[in-house]
Amino acid sequence: MPAPRTSRAALPAHARLTTALRSDTVSGALLIAAALTALVWANSPLADAYTSLRDLHVGPAALHLDLPLHAWAADGLLAVFFFIVGNELKHELVHGELRDPRRAVLPIVGALGGVLVPAAVFLAVNAGAGGGALGGWGIPMATDIAFAVAVLAVVGRHLPAALRTFLLTLATVDDMVAVLVIAVAYTSGLSLTALGLAALGLALFGYLQNGRGPAVTRVRARVPGWLLLGPLALTSWALTHASGVHATIAGVAMGLLMRTTTRDGEPTSPSHRAERLLRPVSAGLALPAFALLSAGVSLAGADGFWTSGITWGILAGLVGGKLVGILGAVWLTARFTSAHLNPRLGWPDIAGLAALAGIGCTVSLLIAELSYADPADLTEAKGAILLASAVASLLAAVVLGVRGRHHRQLAMPSTSGMS
Fold it and tell me: Which segments cross the bilayer (predicted)?
């Protein structure tokens, strides 16, 4: 007999709040609301107050962490979200959808197609452009995983869970490639020493999670997990940031290193405990703060917006290039290899997801700032990123909304033969 369910009204207020924040729909709504607030605020008469807030420096200068608030949001708070993503992917790799390599390969190949084709589209549009327009070729490569997951949660309540896993895998690989491109093509001060120390810290993090033997077992038994792994996680994050690589990579890596099985009499796995603790923090604090401090792009000074090759290269790359690149790569791989989609997914689902991947916000904005020193070029690039993201969101919402109704009808019990 199943255990009796406790009503939401019977739960304490904080428990009801954390339960709500674990919902993708609530998290997505908060993220989108914060982004819209930021955009309106940055283009209002109070824009100076917004700029002062996002550029306010806090943190220890001695550790090279005297950063503006928008950098803390994008590099620090967003790492919590990426940890959740990495942790969820690890669970899928060990226990779920991605255990089958023939399914896991499709989102990975799709991510590569969604990186290469948009970059090629941007270069083609700007082939005859003068100046430094070609420097923005990396802008349409990145998918903003936070916003993409948020939109999927809002419009895709009846879609198969496998589609969300597909998106998480695709967008994570996509962002990792984009971060690698930043490190190689857009960063001149990469510190291999800091990167090596960060790798050692991550290796120790993984060993303390997954290692066997009496010594590590005694350490895990005697030292609380937060006290053992928390400082190590912060140190690894700080070293990754100091290396010049986008620090959210440390969050993904730590999530992928989490142990998803129980040992030594544990009631639940470390992966499960971390997810229960950090998902409400990610949804209620990290993602809204990141959106509020990152999405406030001023559109003032974009006089040549509609005639700029930068504008059209980004629009074509994010909206068209992502759709063609992802859908084409996945279809070709499934057509000519043994890889295959989850049986619950259809090609229209993948098309909607490919359109959704055209949301490029955080990493795209970062690459734009690294690409263009001219304020006019930068304004055009930022405006195009926001416009492309809006168009991609609307297109994906239409396709996935239709598919959601389709999947809901399939899930309804058949009434045929009933009087």
Answer: 26-47, 67-85, 105-125, 137-156, 177-208, 228-257, 277-297, 309-332, 353-372, 384-402
